[in-house]
Structure formats: C-alpha cells, structure tokens
Write a structure and sequence with these properties.
This protein is 51% helix and 16% strand. The chain has 186 residues and is α+β, with helices and mostly antiparallel strands. Helix 2 packs antiparallel against helix 5. It is elongated and about 80 Å long.
C-alpha cells in the first residue's frame, strides 16, 4: 500500500490509510494486552527508542501496529526467536479463550431446547405453512420457496455458535503451529 501511495495511520474496525507520496514502508504487528496505562506507555517507548513508531492499538486492544521510522532499526520488531514465539503464544491464547467462552453458551442452547436436533433429521418440522406438503405444482413451489429462508433461520441459526467455536480452534491451531515452529527454529 505504501508503494501505491497509502500509509497506515490507524485501525479501528478497518485499516485506515492516508494518501502520501509512494514510499517504502516496513510495518510489523505484535499482540499484547496491558494491565496498566504505564505498562502500555513503557512498551510504546521501548519500541520508539528502537526505531519503531506505534501506529495503532490500545492498552486493551491486543493487536499493536508499528511502522519502522529509523533506518538503523532492525527489520523486525523482535530481537530474538523467544520474543517472536511469545507473540504467537499470546495470539493462540486469545483464540482458545474465545472458543472456550462460546462452549458454555452452546451448552445452554442445547439444554434449553434452542438446538432442535429433530429438525436436522426431519427439516419438514421447520415449515409452518398449513398443508404445505399436500400442495403440488406451482402452488407448492411458491409456498416452499417463500418459507424456506424463515425455516432455515428458525431451525439452524444456532449453528453459528459451533461454527464460531470451530473457526476459533482452527485459528488457535494455526497460531500454536507458528509458535512451535518459531521455538523449534531457535
């Protein structure tokens, strides 16, 4: 993006760029939360003293973005393999925590009957149109196609929770793999 004339200036829900003259820019990311504002300021000062400008991230946001501002700064924000591996360990911990938070919610859905396993085996129970299955031809297809989106939302919206759990565990596994590879290459 910097070569195309856009530099990273912040990140909220999306990356924020400013238009500048095309340039070479080196950005790096770390993942870290801080208990106190002073710890966060010490962290930022350490990186700025090492030739890196803090671009985005807050005390509790986790993701911290840095831009290399000094030609003498190393090409990476980590001085050793243990520090780099620590980033992947912290990211893996975050993903596993998120996955574990959704497991009790899913269990509550199962216990209170929100998860309708009967609908998985017999999706017809999700359709409320009287006499739908006795209709034929165009009349059947119009009623069936009209009600299908509602039936799917009624019967399968709960599947978002296990899907999120699965995705979070995949991200955890990927971060854990990077952590182990980085530790092994040390």
């Amino acid at each position: 993006m910097a070569r195309a004339g856009y530099v990273l200036v912040g990140k909220t829900f999306a990356y924020e760029f400013a238009e500048v003259q095309p340039q070479e820019a080196n950005y790096r990311m770390d993942y870290r939360n801080f208990k106190t504002a002073q710890d966060f300021e010490d962290y930022r000062t350490l990186f700025e003293d090492s030739g890196w400008k803090h671009i985005a991230g807050t005390k509790r946001s986790g993701y911290q973005y840095f831009k290399q501002i000094s030609g003498q700064a190393d090409g990476d924000i980590f001085s050793d393999a243990d520090s780099k591996a620590g980033r992947y360990r912290r990211i893996a911990d975050m993903w596993s925590s998120l996955a574990c938070c959704y497991i009790p919610l899913f269990m509550v859905f199962i216990l209170n009957g929100t998860v309708n396993m009967t609908a998985v085996m017999n999706p017809k129970v999700l359709y409320y149109t009287p006499g739908l299955w006795e209709r034929s031809g165009v009349d059947f297809w119009k009623a069936f196609l009209f009600e299908t989106p509602f039936a799917l939302l009624r019967g399968f919206s709960w599947m978002v929770i296990p899907l999120m759990i699965l995705v979070y565990f995949v991200f955890w596994a990927k971060a854990k793999r990077h952590y182990l590879e980085t530790k092994q290459n040390h």
